[in-house]
Amino acid sequence: MTIWDSLVGQRACIEQLQIAAGGQGMNHAWLFTGPPGSGRSNTAVAFAAALQCEQGGLGPDCPDGCHDCHTVLAGSHADVAVIRTEKLTIGVKEVRDLVRRASLTPMGKRWQILVVEDADRLTEQACNALLKAIEEPNPRTVWMLCTPTVEDVLPTIRSRCRLVALSTPTAEEVATFLQTLGCEEQRARYAARASQGHIGRAKALAFDDAVRSRRQDVVAIPARLTTLGQCLASATRLGEVAKEEADAITAELDAREKVDLDAAYGVVERGRRPREYAPALRDLETAQKTRAKRRQLDVVDRGLIDLVSVYRDAIALASGAPGDLVNEDIRHDVERIAALSTPELNLQRIGWIFAAREQMLEFNVPVPLALESMMVALRVPERH
Questions:
Q1: Domain of 108: which CATH number?
Q2: Which of 57, 129, 178, 228 could form a disulfide with 183 if both were Cys (CB 3.0 to 4.6 A apart)?
């Protein structure tokens, strides 16, 4: 299986990029857009491999699997940088470092490529610094920006980029892909529906029992929201689970970074802390706290999307829409919510969930407060 094969449901985009890699329609800046999990950054990396390929732009499909293809996909190619952030934003300092790199002549014969994941997290100053580099590009430099929508970057930036619009793959396409990875058919179909087209999420649901169990706990929440006490308890539990999962992800990395810092400043060998150590430790702890906050928000955000899927199913059921439910495995709960509500009310509930999401992600409202307010609004009256 090549990396092109892992880009599920993106055949039109792949053909467009393969033609460009072959020398037709090449551009110095590209904007990859698509919903979460559609494979924006994977597509950009595959394109980078194709551009660097020794076999004339065939990328991961080249007959011999050339050195350049292997190193791009492994993340070790000297002329390809993939920029990821664990922070809430990408600042101007990081972008200026990229701009300096973009001005360098490639070490190899082909391109200097910079892939910016989550370009929607660029601050205003960072966008302005990036715009200057894209306006006056180095002849052998290629920028690849990845965002959910075209509106997530400045109009002046997107007007200089060639657009690659990825789509959400169908449940059938995702299920088929999971089966090629060795997943049993019934579980693959469940994961494909529950992930709603998010490939990374689908793989986690297919192969990780803990992830599947946590999702089942979340989608069971709407049917339980019948009293004020249950609303508050559900909000607390969702926040706690998100924090526990985020801590589990970051704890090992935090510890490893602390060990590396101590070694770099000779704390372990010399048994004392040089004067420069304290500010370095403070900066590290600040970065780790920011990363932990983002991780927690990411986990909560995923839970909110799962909640939305339940109310979306209730609307589909009440309106007689064709097709399987996203949450077919809890159809009884969905039927009960649909019976006790109206499609209009469930549409309002989806709006309240997205409002809570915006409060946490955009306005820095404390997670417990936003979740409690949301759960109370979602309350379902008991049938009398």
A1: 3.40.50.300
A2: 178
d(CA 174, CA 188): 8
User: Do both 121 and 62 map to the same domain?
Assistant: yes
Give pLDDT tens digits for 349-364: 999 999 999 999 888 8
One domain for residues 190 and 123: no
Residues sharing a CB contact under 8 Å with residue 236, sequence separation 6 or more, in sequence order:
368, 371, 372
Within 10 angstroms of residue 376's Cβ, the number of other Cβ atoms is: 15
User: Domain of 297?
Assistant: 224-377
Check whether residue 238 and residue 154 sit in a common domain. Answer: no
What is the per-residue pLDDT for 138? 85
How many distinct structural domains can be found in the chain? Answer: 3
Give per-residue pLDDT as tens, 28-54: 999 999 988 888 999 999 999 989 987
Which pLDDT band holds residue 56 (cuts at 50, 70, 90)?
A: low
Q: With contact defined as beta carbons under 8 Å apart, do 8 and 39 qualify?
A: yes
Out of 165, 186, 216, pick the residue that ends a domain: 165
CA atoms within 13 A on the CB side of 21: 28
Tens digits of per-residue pLDDT, 154-166?
899 999 999 999 9
pTM comes to 0.81
